[in-house]
Amino acid sequence: MENISSAIQTLTESANTLFILMGAIMVLAMHAGFAFLEVGTVRHRNQVNALVKIMSDFGFSALAYFFIGYWVAYDTTFFSSAETLSANNGYELVKFFFLMTFAAAIPAIISGGVAERAKFTPMLVAAATIVAFVYPFFEGLIWNGNFGFQDWLEATFGAAFHDFAGSVVVHAVGGWIALAAVLILGVRKGRYRGDRLIAFAPSNIPFLALGAWILTIGWFGFNVMSAQTLDGISGLVAVNTLMAMVGGIVASLVVGKNDPGFLHNGPLAGLVAVCAGSDLMHPIGALFTGGVAGALFVWLFTLTQNRFKIDDVLGVWPLHGVCGMWGGLAAGIFGLEALGGLGGVSFMSQLIGTIAGVVIAFVGGWIVYTAVDKTAGIRMTEEDEYSGADLAIHKIASTSED
Predict the structure, then answer these.
(1) Structure pTM?
(2) 45, 67, 286, 348: which has the highest count of C-beta atoms within 10 A?
């Protein structure tokens, strides 16, 4: 009997390790989506830079999170022996891998906002600093119960802040940090002529679409595998993810008037918004959540570019920052039993938790990027910006006619 119990335990541990490993690989693949979404959106002379940034940011983010960020969030380090670390089939190591791919999404989000005019090395340093300190501070606050914030919300409002897969913890935080960086950088040269917006057309719509599809597919690992163990897997999460994606597609197509850029970002807006409550909502609630997010992205992207003159190249603040906020609030609305959800949420907790994430992200981002700007400068010279980041930084163009 003891042998049977031991075998069952080993099988469970190995299955959980494989489950979360597959999730980590799917989210890792999403970084190719970030890369191609940016490559397709920026102008031709900045395509190489987009690819190099995403890869480099991932590598430095992994180091920052391994040595500092994971410690800040979960009070766990990896300085034990390999024998200790490999206990339980190495589940804790693979859990780190999974959560690290989330952390590395923060610089990937920021990259799209600051494209075409940011220096390379100073921004890389800033990204690593964000992943080491700013992001894990809020991550630990929400997902590890640090500093009693969640306990206070539960005692005061009857439920803790609920963010199953990171609408606020990952996306809103990344979007609001990006906004700080974009404001400090300023607009690209030639983007505005007086009050008139000068269109900078995407360089490659097929690449843009490819990036959106890679992200969309990987998102099912992002959400479903956030259960982190095989016994926690839920088909509800998968279908809610699907319905929010569909809502984003339809809304962005209609509101965006068939624009391919809006259409391919629409499903991403819906997916950002459903992360928080994907384990609680009814699929119809998820559809509505995604639809609102898709329309919100189109409206806000147009508003920020035309009226506010905020040069957010890929629209990462409306897409991740604002749609992530909406997702945090939507979990407190459509997660309620009265609206077909599973319950166990409080709208006030969702509101306060979302505001906390925004404040920590924007203030933290502003501090980091201001400090780096004052010491090393984060804006390319006007000449380099005119030549393009590919030649100015990497000394090679994305394609050759030879």
Answers:
(1) 0.96
(2) 286
DSSP-derived secondary structure for 263-319: HHHHHHHHHHHHTTTTTTS-HHHHHHHHHHHHHHHHHHHHHHHHTS----TT-HIII
Q: Please provide the distance, in angstroms rounded to a whole number, between the alpha carbons at the two ends of the chain.
A: 71
Which residue from 14, 351, 7, 25 is spatially nearest to 214, judged by alpha carbons?
25
Give whole-number Cα distances, 8 to 5, 19, 232, 324, in Å.
Answer: 5, 16, 17, 40
Alpha-helical regions (H) of 42-172: 47-64, 70-74, 82-85, 87-113, 121-129, 135-143, 149-157
Spatial distance between the Cα atoms of 3 and 9, rounded to a whole number of angstroms: 10
Contact 163, 276 (CB under 8 A): yes
Amino acid at 329: L
Question: pLDDT tens across 248-303, in order?
Answer: 999 999 999 999 999 999 999 999 999 999 999 999 999 999 999 999 999 999 99
Under a CB-based contact definition with an 8 Å cutoff, are residues 241 and 231 in contact? no
Within the chain, what is the greatest distance between any pair of CA atoms?
Answer: 80
How far is it, in rounded angstroms, from Cα 53 to Cα 108? 8
Q: Is 90 in a helix, a strand, or coil?
A: helix
Q: Give me the amino acid identity at 259.
A: D
User: The tokens of 46 are what?
Assistant: 């900045």
Query: Which residue matches tokens 């319905």?
Result: 243
Distance CA 335, CA 282 (A): 8
Say if CB 127 and CB 364 are below 8 A apart: no
Report how far residue 41's alpha carbon sits from residue 137's, in angstroms, rounded to the nearest whole number: 32
Q: Which residue, among 172, 169, 139, 154, has the nearest Cα to 344 in the 3D structure?
A: 154
